[in-house]
Design a protein that fits this description.
single chain, alpha/beta, Aspartate Aminotransferase, domain 1, seven-stranded mixed β-sheet
């Protein structure tokens, strides 16, 4: 098997899986209980929080654990707007993940003035257009850090300056799911930042929401008061501790992992551009995130190529796993990529353990399959 759909999810590392199993079957105690065995689990969680805080260049009380990127994004948006006394303008980009974009559709129905910031042909935020959209009554802006389909990187610091200069009280949230660990470890240049564990070899169903100190945040789930009363519910200790193990591995090896992913990306780009009628979508491969490459194969429908590759044990995608059953591609459409080029788009995404040998094998398979599929279509 050659797995090139790591933006959808990554395989859980062996050590992370073993850690989760241990906290499920052996050290399974509820950290909110009072006896010593449970207190020891709580102590383990505190250590995991300290590791996460160091990765974010933040403090342990500046984030909460969640069930993943979707919850973090939803909580960031609803949890901050609940603290606002009036309804005003809210902005997200035209290429956000559905867990942000669809929330803004709900906000529009609730009476908020929703605006969508356009992107340039590379898929990054058009900052000039953004500056025109942000008004003094803007309440919240949500812009992803790295696009999950094209790998386009947004300059959060530049966006933050634009937002705060026009509306100092506006909340700036960023979906950092595809950026975390793939970009350098620095304090997020925003008020809230979403992260998901299953993109870095932790289990599905665990994530965090960074909440910058002094940011007014209502919280999400109400109940027993876990996560400082901001997100109640029994702590998902097995996944939290597995996330900690996966993060520790990335923190120790990030430069090597990023270099390896970028090498795979550049090799695939080079291989694919030797084939006729192939086009890279978005920014130049060396400019975007190291783990995502979007390519259009003209004359072939992406889903047909996807299934042909799957028959050979090579797994890719035609876009976000959360948008698989929706018609068209909103992200590519927003970049001006339509028609045959959009129909033939494939997203390749890599992890730290993808090898260049796998890239070459996948490239050879595509070079064999493409002429057959194109010949079939012409008939």
């Amino acid at each position: 098997m050659i797995y090139l759909d790591n933006s959808a999810t990554t395989a859980v590392s062996k050590k992370a899986a073993e850690t989760a199993s241990s906290y499920m079957n052996e050290v399974f105690f509820n950290p909110s209980s009072a006896y010593n065995a449970a207190v020891a689990v709580e102590r383990d969680m505190k250590q995991a929080r300290a590791h996460m805080a160091r990765a974010l260049a933040a403090t342990p009380d500046e984030f909460i654990y969640t069930s993943g990127g979707t919850e973090s994004n939803n909580a960031a948006i609803f949890g901050t707007l609940k603290m606002k006394r009036t309804k005003g303008r809210v902005i997200c980009s035209a290429v956000e993940h559905p867990s942000v974009y669809e929330v803004f559709s709900v906000l529009e129905g609730m009476g908020y003035e929703v605006k969508h910031a356009p992107v340039n042909s590379d898929g990054a935020i058009d900052t000039e257009a953004l500056s025109e959209l942000v008004t003094p009554d803007t309440l919240l802006v949500s812009l992803m850090h790295v696009n999950n389909e094209t790998g386009a990187i947004n300059d959060l610091e530049k966006c933050r300056k634009i937002i705060k200069s026009a509306s100092p009280e506006a909340i700036f949230h960023s979906d950092g799911v595809q950026a975390f660990c793939k970009m350098p470890f620095v304090t997020p240049a925003c008020d809230l930042y979403s992260v998901s564990g299953h993109k870095i070899h932790a289990p599905k169903g665990i994530g965090i929401l960074y909440i910058k100190k002094n940011t007014k945040f209502f919280g999400s789930l109400i109940g027993g008061g876990q996560e400082r009363g901001l997100r109640s519910g029994t702590s998902n200790v097995p996944s939290i501790m597995a996330f900690d193990v996966a993060l520790e591995d990335y923190m120790a090896n990030r430069e090597e992992y990023v270099r390896s992913m970028m090498n795979c990306k550049m090799r695939l780009a080079k291989n694919m551009l030797t084939l006729p009628d192939t086009v890279i979508n978005g920014c130049a491969p060396e400019v975007g995130a190291p783990h995502i490459l979007n390519i259009s194969f003209l004359g072939v429908r992406g889903e047909v190529l996807l299934h042909s590759l799957a028959e050979r044990g090579i797994y890719v995608s035609t876009g976000s796993a959360c948008s698989t059953h929706k018609k068209g591609n909103r992200i590519l459409d927003s970049m001006g990529i339509r028609g045959e080029r959009q129909a033939g788009a494939i997203r390749f995404s890599f992890c730290a353990h993808t090898t260049e040998a796998e890239i070459d094998e996948a490239s050879n398979a595509i070079s064999e399959i493409l002429p057959q599929l194109r010949r079939f279509k012409r008939r």
